[in-house]
Amino acid sequence: MVDDTRRQPRSPESVQSVDRALRLLEVLARSEAPMGIGEVAEMTGLPQGTAHRLLHSLQSRGYVRQDSSRKYSVGTAALRLGDAAQRSLARNARPHLSDLVAISGETANLAVLEGNDVVSVAQAPSPHTLRRFAEVGRHVPPHSAAVGKVLLAAMPRERALGLLRRTGLPRRTDQTITELGAFARELDTVLNHGWAADEEEQEVGVRCLAVPIGHGEDAVAAISLSGPRALQRRPRARSGRSHGAGRAAFRGRAARTVNQVGRTRAPIKGVVR
Question: What's the predicted TM-score (pTM) here?
Fold first, then answer.
């Protein structure tokens, strides 16, 4: 099976060797296990000789490593790029998170998937709450958080379920979904709506709504609003809108700003505009 990146049209201004090297890295990054040269060539559609030369160059810079079985995986040098990208994403998102707080009156968060957890990397706190939810740097299981649901829903289904089979679905509250089949149905709902909700599934008394930044496998992060359950009944947010209007406005604002934050090319299905 050829990776989807092969089908993407190449810009007339792109450099072919750079484009091919990045395609190799993307294929390796999406693989669950190290890949042989034949697999890499097949997935990228490149001749084996070309793939081998590019992999050798990337290996010399530490962006690719080769194990004792002569199979390839992403190297540790890529960690520097990942850290820099995460910092840039958080920096670019902060003004938009502040806008969402003004619209809704709730705490806005930016989260990414790290290993088996989701972690908050930026936050704009609500002026109405005395405590923060999903503090920056906090790791939580993806199945019990709205941000985790949208990121899992963006993955190929078997990859998402494989992650959950490894980690299990531990109960965080009485509302947490702990059965794999039920959670798979929840992911179907998320895909259909284009957003996810956490109804006190991570922490008692806390609700959360999240949308992805990016489309499909290109979803790099998620934006969320979270706050205590009691605030769901607050008559007015800071902007003077009702909470229901704030929720709809959040989805619309998030849909309009993901291009600026994550540069996604596709709209978020089902999100109010």
Answer: 0.67
